[in-house]
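Lab meeting tomorrow. Look over both lines:
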Amino acid sequence: MMAMLDEIGGEEAVAKIVTRFYDLMETLPEAHSFHRLHFRGHGLDHTRTEQLNFMIGFLVGRQYYREKHGHMDLHEIHAHVPIRDEDAEVWLQTWDQALSECGASGEDVDRMRSIVARVARKLVNDVPDWRLDVV
């Protein structure tokens, strides 16, 4: 049985999707408020790299993120981050747009979308917001 990563085109395909996703996150007006979640952390450049490392492992490829950080516990990774319903939805809409623009489609991509959507919505929490006025 092939890993989901291989079924959707391998590391190169995931890198293309993650790159497009963060390009969209940096430019779409509807994603602007989402920036507050990154500007209090390590910034978008760091997040681009770590997202790629995580997604490759999440899709049953090499465990780059786990090798570097010792785990892939999304609740622990995001425990300090205030994630609202609207944040999860913006993330998912932007992810879907990146998938579409990169030509990712088919049963395997639909299965990945479903899993990612379930996970993103489970990360919604009640951590006090530290909204910033991001210009």
Q: What stands out?
A: DSSP finds eight helices and no strands in the chain. Helices lie at 4-7, 10-27, 36-39, 44-58, 64-69, 74-77, 85-101, 107-122. The domain at 10-122 is CATH 1.10.490.10 (Globin-like).
